[in-house]
Design a protein that fits this description.
Oligomer: single chain
Number of strands: 17
Structural class: alpha+beta
Number of helices: 9
Distance between the termini: 15 Å
Mean pLDDT: 88
């Protein structure tokens, strides 16, 4: 799953206060974006949303929590032989178990040498294959806890194949992992398994996207971006980048981010967050200022 990511902070606390480049001997993976964290791997993508309110608390550091959980989650997936072995196996991946371990490792890592408090949502997609099929078929294992979102789009058909369902305690308070939260991956995370096709696009997005763009808008931006890329009309800066892979998906993610940011900064725009707030009896209009993070990946057949 060659991938690309693009993210942009709208918060003012986008620099980590805990600069440890390594944890347990491993380089910390992913990218911190405000309180969000995103990660791109060959067959694993994720977007976690650290809860910004922790910035006002003593020893609060939601950005570290979101980044470490994603880091450990990806490591656990890599370490599982059912995910990485070359030969076909009948053993299925277990992303919720990986997330539970990541949560436990993060609790340890944020206790020593310094104590840091925080909470984060968690959302990721793992590309594998159908373990029950005679011939391998691409299978996507999607895990979610909270209100970040994974969405699968078939761009040529301009069709939504799948999206996660948001989990809330109450309005604007999603399920989350971390300090003082009752939620755990083992009890609250939801994992869905779906068959996908080559060229399907998988998006992992923080709520900075889904609070500002409706589903049909995201699908349209994906479709239009792919069309422009295929016709040669896409961003020349991206096309001329030296990296061979990921440029088309970077363009897709950039298009979605740009659109979400425009709504977030418009005090008069209509937005999904505004609509939900009105349904709760709250008077508000416009987009929602928040960290905005997008990872876009495309299912591709291995060469060779």
């Amino acid at each position: 799953m060659p991938s690309g990511s693009f993210s942009d902070p709208l918060s003012t606390h986008n620099r980590s206060r805990d600069r440890r480049p390594y944890v347990n001997g491993e380089m910390i993976r992913g990218i911190t974006n405000g309180d969000d964290a995103v990660l791109v791997g060959e067959n694993f993508i994720g977007a976690n949303d650290g809860v910004g309110a922790w910035a006002q608390k003593s020893r609060g550091h939601a950005a570290l929590w979101s980044r470490l959980i994603l880091h450990f989650w990806a490591l656990e997936a890599e370490r599982d032989s059912s995910v990485n072995q070359e030969a076909m196996s009948s053993v299925e991946p277990d992303p919720i178990r990986y997330l539970q371990r990541a949560y436990e490792y993060t609790k340890e890592a944020t206790s020593s040498p310094n104590e840091w408090k925080g909470t984060t949502t968690a959302c990721a997609a793992l590309l594998h294959y159908d373990t029950e099929s005679i011939s391998p078929k691409p299978m996507l294992y999607v895990t979610n806890l909270g209100d970040s979102q994974v969405m699968v789009v078939r761009p040529k058909a301009k069709k939504l194949i799948y999206k996660t369902t948001e989990q809330w305690h109450w309005f604007d308070c999603p399920r989350q992992l971390g300090t003082n939260s009752p939620d755990t991956p083992a009890t609250d995370a939801v994992m869905d398994k779906l068959e996908i096709e080559e060229d399907d696009i998988v998006l992992a997005m923080s709520d900075g996207v889904v609070d500002n763009l409706w589903e049909h808008e995201v699908i349209q931006y994906v479709h239009d971006s792919v069309q422009r890329w295929d016709s040669g009309e896409q961003d020349s800066v991206l096309k001329n980048r030296p990296e061979a892979s990921g440029k088309e998906m970077l363009a897709v993610a950039k298009e979605i981010l740009k659109a979400a940011k425009a709504i977030a900064e418009d005090p008069y725009a209509e937005s999904p967050f505004m609509e939900r707030a009105v349904e709760e009896g709250l008077a508000m209009e416009g987009g929602k200022l928040d960290d905005i993070s997008v990872v876009a990946a495309q299912c591709k057949r291995r060469k060779g």
